[in-house]
């Protein structure tokens, strides 16, 4: 016996013997309709559902601290607005109170230092120093390699080396040794650029 539909256009058939879905296509259709939408919202719903199932509804994964506000927030005088001479209070001096408060605050050495500067600046400074030291060392070694290109150049004066490059100088043993070595070095340096 079929039940009467609750609203027009809807009919409820219970011929599946207690199963939630009548067929595989019906299951896929319902799941696609359920999962249609923004992936962020769907993900948040899954996470909240899993959290409630696994841990409990009243448990939070990220602890929340409801701490009292610092007393300075309650007792610190606010900067008074500009007032006409007639509007100034008779027995109070809000401008002087605020001025005294600011002077006392400036006496504290860490009053204007930002918290991030206190914690991040030393680490960033040490990293920058180590990077600059390593770059400086690399440049020094590269310069030594450039200057130290050949063991014969190390001990020869510049005039002898220029003489070896000169084409008018004969084919001496010295020229035969230095010239190919310098050409190899020049080709290597051109390849680096």
Automatic annotation (TrEMBL):
Superkingdom classification of source: Eukaryota
Designated name of the protein: Uncharacterized protein
Species whose genome carries this gene: Mythimna separata
